[in-house]
Amino acid sequence: MENEKKKIALSLIQPSGTITLGNYLGAIRNWVTMQEEFNCIFALADLHTITVRQEPAKMRKNILDAYASILACGIDVEKSLFFIQSHVSSHAELAWLLNCYTQFGELSRMTQFKDKSAKHADNINAGLFTYPSLMAADILLYQADCVPVGADQLQHLELTRDIANRFNGLYGNVFKVPEAYIPKNGARVMSLQDPTRKMSKSDENANGCVHLLDPPEVIMKKFKRAITDSEACVRYAEGKDGINNLMDIYGAVTGLTHEQIEKDFEGKGYGDFKVAVGEAVVETLRPIKAEYEKLIADKAYLEECYRKSDDIAQKISQRTLTKAKKKIGFVL
Ligand code: TYM
Fold it and tell me: Which whole number is the average pLDDT over 248-264?
């Protein structure tokens, strides 16, 4: 955070289970490369995870695992902030304020709310509904210029922009209106078992989702079982969702274009292609897994990293929070 002139990139991830290949390709990988060009602010969105019921001991483990995994991917706390959302009280506080500037109709249109309430019909809590206001607070507190996320978060980001513009319209320039940063490759990694749905930690079919910490043999097995089609020709085309997804994943980890992949696999069957994709993913994840094993064994180091970032995040975010409260009319 030493160069104040750089633009600010900010993003969070829910530590609600182990990190997936979708999270990595859609978001974290870009976070790592953006650290040179931007002042980066990253965090674990643990407050967001309790919109779905969590088991306390498992939640604590998931948070530390996610923290270590993301450091292992290459987030460097000497260059970037990487804190834990619940340790920085301004997030929950601004979220409340923004709730009062967010319309019921807007929240009702969020597809993630509709999906999650269908999935957890026994627990459609108010937090699940107002989740986007908390996400808006996460972003707006830090005057972020740019938010690197996968394509599934675009709707939430649009709402954040609407909330910021509405607030600024009432009170003057309080919040920076952020832009989304969606990667060219890997923005929408789909389930290996149902390639019409995004790859997700909560995939009912365990073979649909590759986790960052899966052992190599498990990753290979998941790719070998990936759903494809009956054409047996590696080409990118409408209606070939399974193969398209594998080509996207392969392209994202090797840097090859669809045309190059089609050429390389001309005359070869899906079996060969699936093995190639699996191996490329295993090799991409191998150093991350090794680094994770080292980091997770050193809880004191992890704590040192997040405490340092927590404190700085608290200071930066308080500035915006105080400004917003003053504009609204609170006595400070
Ligand atoms: P979350 O935790 O579901 O996902 C974290 C990041 O990973 C991306 N992602 C994917 N990208 C490509 N393909 C996939 N299958 C895939 N699955 C997940 C997501 O787009 C995201 O970038 N609401 C957010 C967390 C959040 C946040 C924020 C993000 C809270 N506050 C402020 C940005 C800014 C979420 O649930 O992401």
Answer: 96
Angle at which helices 154-171 and 111-119 pack, to 10 degrees? 130
Cα–Cα distance between 317 and 314 in angstroms, integer? 5
Residues in the ligand 1 pocket, defined by CB under 6 Å: 11-14, 22-23, 25-27, 45, 48, 135, 138-139, 147, 149-150, 152-153, 156, 187-189, 198-199
Q: What percent of the chain has pLDDT over 90?
A: 94
* 188-219 residues labelled b (16+ CB within 10 A) or e (exposed): bbbbbbbbeebbbeebeeebbbbbbbbeeeeb
Out of 10, 11, 13, 19, mutate this one to test ligand 1's pocket (max ligand atoms within 8 Å of CB): namely: 13
pTM greater than 0.85 (yes/no): yes
Q: Which residues pair with 146 in a beta bridge?
A: 9, 179
Q: Contact, 79 vs 41, CB < 8 A?
A: no
In sequence order, what are the beta bridge partners of 12?
Answer: 43
The length of the chain, given as a count of residues: 332
Residues assigned a catalytic role? 116, 198, 201
Query: What pLDDT sits at residue 183?
Result: 87
- Average pLDDT, integer, range 152-168: 97
**What DSSP element (H or E) covers 43?**
strand 39-44
Quote the pLDDT of residue 185: 85
Give the pLDDT of residue 4: 62
Tokens 């097995």, located at residue: 221
CA of 29 to the centre of ligand 1 (A): 12
Which pLDDT band holds residue 203 (cuts at 50, 70, 90)?
Answer: confident
